[in-house]
Amino acid sequence: MNNNRKRFLAFPYILWMSAFIVIPLFIIVYYGFTNADGAFTFANLEEIIDPVNLKALGLSLLLSLISTIVCLLLAYPLAMIIRNSKHRSSNFIIFIFILPMWMNSLLRTIAWQTLLEKNGVINTILQTIHLPKMNVMNTPTAVVIGMVYNFLPFMVLPIYNTLMKIDNNVINAARDLGANGVQTFCRIIFPLSMPGVVSGITMVYVPSLTTFVISDLLGGGKSLLIGNVIEQEFKFNYDWNVGSGLSLVLMVFIIISMAFIVKYDGDMEDTNVW
Description:
This protein is mostly helical. The protein is built from 13 helices and no strands. Helix 3 runs parallel beside helix 7, helix 3 runs antiparallel to helix 10 (194-210) and helix 8 (168-176) runs antiparallel to helix 9 (181-192). The longest helix has 34 residues, at 51-84.
């Protein structure tokens, strides 16, 4: 395929990328570094040191980190089980896992609202069997549950795809050479599955850090995340400058996190297996 044909085929994506990535990003940068009169300023970025915004950013980082860890702890064993199951069973498990994603994420979150509320399904069942009610709704725990439920498939699928690519002969060779199950996992399977783990962490951590719908519905306004602060600046205060400035600060945290993850992934690839 010659270069002219490659450029022609890439043109639709370049056009789409320019319209929906470059131009919106340019608008955010413009508003983030200007005031209402259009003059250059850093004041919008400095809004992050406001105690309310700083607390929201810290809570966002904490909850997104917890959600990512919980997703990883749940997803990796599940991906291993799917890999080791028979072909028909693995397809069925994957189908069951993907099925909720056919619904809108807003509906999935509202469903959890129905389950967790004071007189919801879970508390009704607990009351029926004479157990104390849970008071989870409108707490950070409810937000983490919502994040894990919504983003868990994004952790399972890349790990599963990477595990499926590992040659069974490599695993069998390790066991023939005397490695037990733990050694085979720690020195063969897990290092080879790191690309999937890194992809999963990225796909869970970034949306968890920027979400505002889940904290709105399950946090009840008591768990204010940085996504909620940015939403309020745009939708209620109509202050695009401050909203864009806070968005730029959030982008910096995401870029730093991604750079750390990519560097760690690179270090793992440089490490010899076995």
